[in-house]
Amino acid sequence: MACEKWKNAFGNISRAKSFEELFMLWKKAHKEIGLNLNKFYPDGVVNDEAYFNSNPRVLYVLKEPNSGNDVSEGDFWFKRQVENKSHHIIPTRIKIMQKVINGNRDLNFVAYININKYGGLNRTNGEKLKEYAYSKEIRPLIKKQIELLAPDIVVCCGVYEIVKEILSENPKSILVNMWHPSYKFTNHQKYKEVFEKRFSELNIGEKYC
């Protein structure tokens, strides 16, 4: 019975055409794995028109929102940071990476998602994150969200192995392996230099000039 139910769920996921549909299925998946149905942190595109008309389309994938002990449904944290012109370290360093990729620091042109939509604490438990991401309930949801975003470049911020594994069956995007933007043991200049090196090693810059 359980196998049949998830066979049907996979079908629903594959047919999802909007992020709203996908997130409803994601909340149900949280319930299936024993998480609070009402605790969910949406993410995705900051500005639909800007992102889907950009070239290249760049997606930043992070680990999880820092939700602490909050059990209510959250908002799209990154979008709020962009709208408020925040100087938080995460949007600041994503601006740095965007500047390297295409010379444009405007974060309205990016997509931003977390692997874990349930939230976590100040420090991510790597094994628990993998357990969540690779579960039969969650894995197809992550894959479908990335497919709906259709990025040309995916910047994996501390989640390279997870994203590489989930997209391994049908890789359509170029993956960049980079530190998490909140990595505190470096300054902005060093962070930029490391990203420039890793991005240049992929030899893809000229394609989008």
Give the topology.
Layout lengths: L1 H14 L3 H14 L11 E2 L2 H5 L5 E5 L14 H7 L5 H14 L7 E5 L11 H9 L4 H11 L3 E5 L2 H7 L7 E5 L9 H13 L9
Parallel strand pairs: 2-3, 2-4, 4-5
Antiparallel strand pairs: 1-3
Helix pairs in contact: 2-7, 5-9
Describe this structure in words.
The chain has 209 residues and is α/β, with parallel strands linked by helices. It has one domain (2-208): Uracil-DNA Glycosylase, subunit E (3-Layer(aba) Sandwich). Helix content is 45%, strand content 11%. It has helices spanning 2-15, 19-32, 48-52, 77-83, 89-102, 126-134, 139-149, 160-166, 188-200, and strands at 44-45, 58-62, 110-114, 153-157, 174-178. Strands 1-3-2-4-5 form a five-stranded mixed sheet, with helices on both faces. α2 (19-32) runs antiparallel to α7 (139-149). The termini are far apart. The relative contact order is 0.17.
Q: What is the overall pLDDT average?
A: 89
- The level-1 CATH class: Alpha Beta
Rg over C-alpha atoms, rounded to the nearest angstrom? 17 Å
Low-confidence stretches: none
Task: Give the count of structural domains.
Answer: 1
Helix-and-strand structural type: alpha/beta
Strand order of the main beta sheet, please?
1-3-2-4-5
The general outline is globular
CA-to-CA gap between the ends? 52 Å
